[in-house]
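re: the backbone from monday

yeah here it is again, tokenized this time
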């Protein structure tokens, strides 16, 4: 009778080992691709630009809210906050009119608070350190007799980056409806 061929130990193909090796190579290839993709995304200029946009928006919203909030019982703190939120000509205007404005608010005895409803960066020049924001807010004025009035407002702000911090350099009402900005 003919003999069956002898299979030497260790020479027999093992499907589980081959499958494991194949899966390990595929996983290593995927890891390399994902790592390269992550590295490219992390070092992409668009990520840095998006971060600057988010910083400008947060600073713009906060500064607009600050400039629409003032309590006659703590004027110095409120007006100091106004000045620290601004830069350039706007800051100079606020500082030069501070005493006169403080007298008016003390006489009126009002408490004004603002709450940001939404905001958007409409323009960003990261290299020049300039941005523009549109901020919608609700301003509540409480009179001395306790009466409250609320008004929704849209403000256009210009921001300037100084010492790696965005500050408001101009502020005005946004046109409503079909009114042009000219």
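seq for it, each position gets an aa:
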């Amino acid at each position: 009778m003919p003999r069956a061929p002898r299979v030497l130990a260790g020479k027999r193909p093992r499907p589980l080992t081959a499958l494991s090796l194949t899966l390990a190579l595929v996983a290593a290839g995927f890891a390399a691709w994902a790592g390269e993709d992550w590295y490219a995304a992390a070092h992409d200029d668009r990520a840095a630009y998006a971060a600057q946009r988010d910083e400008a928006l947060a600073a713009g919203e906060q500064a607009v809210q600050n400039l629409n909030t003032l309590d006659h019982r703590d004027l110095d703190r409120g007006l100091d906050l106004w000045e620290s939120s601004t830069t350039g000509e706007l800051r100079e205007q606020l500082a030069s009119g501070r005493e006169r404005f403080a007298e008016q608010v003390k006489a009126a005895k009002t408490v004004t608070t603002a709450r940001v409803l939404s905001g958007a960066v409409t323009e960003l020049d990261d290299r020049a350190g300039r941005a523009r924001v549109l901020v919608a807010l609700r301003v509540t004025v409480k009179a001395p007799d306790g009466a409250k009035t609320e008004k929704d407002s849209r403000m256009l702000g210009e921001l300037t980056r100084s010492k790696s911090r965005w500050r408001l350099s101009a502020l005005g009402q946004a046109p409503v409806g079909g009114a042009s900005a000219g």
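The chain has a mean pLDDT of 90. The chain is about 45% helix and 30% strand.
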